[in-house]
Specification:
This protein is an alpha/beta fold. The structure holds phosphoenolpyruvate (PEP) and magnesium ion.
């Protein structure tokens, strides 16, 4: 809701999804496509138009090489290679000849001719049912926009890769793959019009420690490139032209938060144990092998969720067995003997491969996702399973399947895993025979048949992000219904309790790796419900650990008992928050 303040500054509010305060210049990402009008030229002009086109091709090449160089420095050679295909488009003789022919024969401007020629090719390629060719169509369209912008003297439609200085990015939407490519030195914070707390864009923002506000309605029209903005990722505010007083107040908030962080360093090596002696495993969620450094720094016990799909996105090919093996090894070996839970591919939903032509789905979160996709794309799955098995000899590795909704899926996945074991044995390749297999409990059906599933696995990890969206029928990405996304809904708490009870009855442990595990108000409640492992984003590990060390299991159990007998999500939340606030009051000062 936009609002004006007395001192002239303007304050907007969205959903706070990633903590931190940033003051910088706003850059609004403009994805409006350039569509040049048809203008004729004189019969004597074609040579001049051809020269203009050539000059723009050269200039665009220079721009792309500069972007590629920046990306190479920030993210590495592989990510930068994405632009190789763009450079090839600029040299494509057929495309250039076609545009030149239009100029000469139809007597049209260079921009119209190039637009026509590039659209003709892109259209033809995108009609062929071939993933590689449709990716080339997208490349042609992207490059054509840059050439057209240069020809028409406009700024090219600004994408994340065009940023030239540190800023706060403002966009209608950013996909998880956009966010995964962000360079935190350039993107100091970001604001989007859509999205909510448990979208993967939000999760990645927390993982990269980039302050972010999502679901800020009309952000694109309210904010302008070049404006000075202050982004408050604690409370969801964006202040345009902040006053001295506002800057002073935020300076104090930042100082308080920094001193809290520093004070938590003393518990780095301590266990996550309640005051009355109940030990909880507190582990970390990661998205990339490089995140292992953050796990070591934050004082977590291993990794409770490695979202391996981020190895697969933002690239023009699939990672092979060796590349995956190296990534899984690095994490497992660096953290040994602490456990590392590698979740098999959870593609689909809002995490899509850029180069595989998957038809758009009406309801992607209910569609071809995670284990469902893997059980059909068996080669893709086998490659991953082989890489994980091979990495298992380097430490304490466990395998976890996502989105299991019934026993058959689990058994089908295990059949493929057994095939991979058999192959590796035949090849004489080492792997740990006793690798533990667990599943995510993130569909209501899995929670309800947890007793059947518990007989077949060694652990459960509750994926509350999905469990909540599926059980409450609330899209986790949709800011319009974010207020209905209630982790303390009694229906959710009962599903969690049923899962824990079924696990305990069969002698297996239940953890939770959804965002609820890092929500301070929810932590005592989860402990009271009997969850024995919490896996959270590394930046939250010290606070969650301190909170656990500040409460008693007996009060957590009382809270859970109250919650299981309550009808009101709000009442449960209020009680849960009160307990957490009483335990660690400073964590809540100045934050929503
Ligand atoms: C979850 O659903 O809670 C979970 C951890 O998986 P993801 O957020 O990757 O869907
Ligand atoms: Mg999930």
């Amino acid at each position: 809701m936009p609002s004006k303040r007395k001192n002239g500054e303007k304050m907007l509010r969205g959903i706070p999804v990633s903590q931190g305060v940033i003051r910088s210049r706003a850059v609004v990402l403009d994805r409006t496509r350039i569509d040049p009008a048809k203008w004729g030229i004189l019969e004597s002009d074609p040579a001049g138009e051809e020269d203009r086109l050539q000059a723009s091709l050269v200039e665009t090449r220079r721009q792309i090489l500069a972007v590629q160089e920046r990306l190479r420095e920030a993210m590495g050679v592989k990510e930068a290679q994405i632009f190789d295909a763009h450079l090839l488009v600029l040299e494509d003789p057929m495309l250039i000849e076609e545009a030149t022919r239009f100029i000469r024969e139809d007597l049209v401007t260079a921009e119209f001719a190039f637009h026509e020629a590039s659209e003709k090719y892109a259209e033809a390629l995108s009609k062929v049912d071939d993933a590689y060719l449709s990716e080339r169509a997208a490349d042609i369209r992207d490059v054509a926009q840059r050439v057209l912008a240069d020809l028409m003297g406009q700024a090219p439609c600004t994408g994340l890769t065009d940023l030239t200085e540190p800023c706060v990015v403002v966009a209608h939407d950013l996909t998880p793959s956009d966010t995964a490519m962000m360079d935190p030195a350039m993107v100091l914070g970001f604001v989007t019009e859509v999205g909510s707390r448990t979208s993967h864009t939000a999760i990645l923002a927390r993982s990269l420690r980039i302050p972010a506000v999502l679901g800020l309605d009309k952000a694109i029209s309210e904010l302008h490139t070049g404006e000075s903005v202050l982004l408050d990722g604690f409370n969801g505010f964006v202040v345009i032209d902040p006053s001295e007083q506002t800057l002073f107040e935020y300076g104090q908030l930042v100082d308080r938060q920094t001193s809290i962080e520093e004070s938590l360093e003393v518990i780095h090596d301590d266990a996550a144990e309640t005051r009355d002696g109940h030990r909880i495993i507190l582990s970390a969620n990661i998205e990339r092998a490089a995140d292992v450094e953050g796990v070591l720094q934050c004082g977590a016990t291993g990794v409770g969720l490695f979202r391996t799909e981020f190895l697969f996105i933002n690239r023009s090919d699939l990672p092979g067995e060796e590349e995956q093996f190296a990534a899984y090894c690095k994490v497992t070996e660096s953290l040994a003997p602490d456990p590392v839970i590698i979740r098999t591919l959870d593609l689909g939903g809002d995490k899509l491969l850029s180069h595989v032509n998957v038809a758009a789905e009406m309801n992607p979160f209910l569609g071809w996702r995670a284990i469902r996709l893997c059980l059909q794309e068996k080669d893709l799955f086998r490659t991953q399973l082989r890489a994980i098995l091979r990495a298992s000899v380097f430490g304490n590795l466990k395998i976890m399947y996502p989105m299991i909704s019934g026993v058959e899926e689990l058994e089908a996945a295990n059949v493929l895993l057994d095939e991979c074991r058999e192959q590796l044995r035949d090849e004489g390749v080492a792997f740990a025979e006793d690798v533990e297999i667990g599943i995510m409990i993130e569909t209501p059906s899995a929670a309800m048949i947890a007793d059947s599933l518990a007989k077949r696995v060694k652990f459960f990890s509750i994926g509350s992000n999905d469990l909540i969206q599926y059980a409450l029928a609330v899209d986790r990405l949709n800011e319009k219904i974010a207020h209905l996304y209630e982790p303390t809904h009694p229906g959710i708490l009962r599903l969690i309790k049923a899962t824990v009870d079924a696990g305990q009855a069969h002698g297996i442990w239940t953890g939770i790796c959804g965002e609820m595990a890092g929500d301070l108000a929810a932590v005592p409640l989860l402990l009271g419900l009997g969850v024995s492992e919490l896996s959270v984003t590394p930046s939250m590990v010290p606070r969650v650990k301190m909170l656990i060390r500040s409460i008693e299991m007996s009060e957590a159990r009382k809270l859970a008992e109250f919650a299981l007998n309550s009808d009101s999500p709000k009442e449960i939340l209020a009680r849960a928050e009160a307990l957490a606030k009483a335990a660690v009051p400073s964590f809540f000062e100045g934050t929503a």
